[in-house]
Amino acid sequence: MAQHDNLQLARQAFEAWNKHDVERYVRLLDEKHVFESDTIPAPMPGREAGRQFMQIYVSAFPDLHFDIDQMLGEGDFVVTRWTAKGTHRGELMGIKPTNRRTITHGCTVVQIKSGKLVHDWIYWDTGHLLRQLGVLPAA
Prior knowledge:
This protein is an alpha+beta fold. It has one domain (3-132): Nuclear Transport Factor 2, Chain: A, CATH 3.10.450.50. 32% of the residues lie in helices and 39% in strands. It has four helices and six strands; from the N terminus they run ααββαββββα. A six-stranded mixed sheet has the order 2-1-6-5-4-3. The protein is globular, with a radius of gyration of 15 Å. The chain starts with a helix and ends in a 7-residue tail after the last helix.
C-alpha cells in the first residue's frame, strides 16, 4: 500500500477508538493481528484480543479520547505520538474507579500489510497515569 494509504488507515484506527466503535476497529485488524504493550504481560494475538484490549480501556474511561500529536509513515509502518484524555469511571486491571480525570502521552507503532493492521506496539507513560489515579505516589 502507498504510504498515504497506511497513514489514512492508522488515522481510521484512532477515529474508531475515539468513537468507541469496537466493531469498526476490529474490521481494520488482520485476523492474525498482534498487540504488544507495557500494560499487558504478553503479546495478544487475533481480532478478539483487539476487541478485548479496546473494551478494557473504553470501559475504564468511558470518555476516552486520543489527540494525534504527530503521525509518521515509512514503508509498512506508521508511528503515532498521541495524547489520551479520559475520566476513570470503570475498573482498570484491578484498580477501582477513582473518577479522576487523566491525561497521558504515548506512541503507537503499527505495521500494515494488505490494507490491514497486523501488529501494534504501544508505548505510553503508565507511571504518569497511575500517579494521576493515586496508585503511585506523586513524582
